[in-house]
């Protein structure tokens, strides 16, 4: 299996979720199943079936997180010495050449991407257009909504 790139912050977030699932959710669900069993007939016991279904989701997510963390290549953006070029982990300030609007994105792994927090996946069209560029360069992004041209205003590693 190929390595999954993650920032140090993203890996820490996944570890925290894994810890919560193993040490809070799993015991709570096991207790809920035990409580539901005490009610008797399991065939028509909705609480029991709901708890078992929830257990399946949690166990699946635990396996998924363990697999991703085991195959992760953790990259700390503060130790990447790629400036002035844009690489994985860079925080980039861009200006849309049409509207003049500025946006800030950090290029992160697929698992930790969250556009609402300004975290874009390294495999997204914007990140692919930015990798290898420097401050002052223009990047043409081919998005489903059309072609957008951005000027790279600032590149930093934090």
UniProtKB/TrEMBL annotation:
Domain Transcription elongation factor GreA/GreB N-terminal: 4-74
Species in which this protein is naturally found: Halorhodospira halochloris (Ectothiorhodospira halochloris)
Keyword annotations: DNA-binding, Elongation factor, Protein biosynthesis, Transcription, Transcription regulation
Occurrences of domain Transcription elongation factor GreA/GreB C-terminal (ranges): 84-157
GO MF assignments: DNA binding; RNA polymerase binding; translation elongation factor activity
Protein name, as recorded: Transcription elongation factor GreA
Pfam entry (one): GreA_GreB_N
Family: Belongs to the GreA/GreB family.
């Amino acid at each position: 299996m190929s390595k999954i790139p993650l920032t140090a912050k993203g890996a820490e977030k996944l570890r925290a979720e894994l810890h919560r699932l193993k040490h809070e959710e799993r015991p709570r669900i096991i207790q809920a199943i035990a409580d539901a069993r005490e009610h008797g007939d399991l065939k028509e016991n909705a609480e029991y079936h709901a708890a078992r279904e929830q257990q399946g989701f949690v166990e699946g997510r635990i396996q998924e997180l363990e697999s991703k963390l085991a195959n992760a290549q953790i990259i700390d953006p503060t130790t990447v010495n790629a400036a002035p070029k844009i690489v994985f982990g860079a925080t980039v300030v861009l200006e849309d050449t049409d509207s003049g609007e500025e946006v800030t994105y950090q290029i992160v792994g697929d698992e930790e991407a969250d556009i609402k927090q300004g975290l874009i996946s390294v495999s997204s069209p914007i990140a692919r257009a930015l990798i290898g560029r420097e401050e002052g360069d223009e990047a043409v992004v081919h998005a489903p909504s059309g072609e957008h041209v951005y000027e790279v205003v600032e590149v930093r590693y934090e």
